[in-house]
Amino acid sequence: MDVPDAPHPSRRHILNRMLAPYGLAKKSACLGFLASAAARASEAFQLTAVPLPSAAELEAMVSSVLSENSLQDDAAPLSSEGSPPAETLDTNR
């Protein structure tokens, strides 16, 4: 029987039977390593649990970015070479 498929109360008994041939010291070390691995896996999962914005918040953020980009595009239009047109360059510096 695969341990994850076992009912919860049976898992510990199955695990103890699987580790019995290794002796008490190695069994204890194995259980410690399993507890550490489970804690690390839980911690790693928490790193991926990023809160997502609601639909209204996402719409507001996108609108804000689009309006900022629109204002920047209107303020300094670029020539085809990717630099401001010559008439907008300040040559007095």
Topology:
Layout: H1 8-19, H2 23-48, H3 55-75
Beta-strand content estimate:
under 5%
Largest sheet: none
Helix content: 55-70%
Strands, count: 0
Task: Give an overview of the whole structure.
With 93 residues, the protein is mostly helical. It has one domain. It is 63% helix and 0% strand. It contains three helices and no strands. The longest helix is centred in the middle third of the chain and has 26 residues, at 23-48. It is rod-shaped. The mean pLDDT is 80.
Concise overview:
With 93 residues, the protein is mainly α. It has helices at residues 8-19, 23-48, 55-75.
Give a quick set of tags describing it.
93 residues, mainly alpha, 3 helices, 63% helix, 0% strand
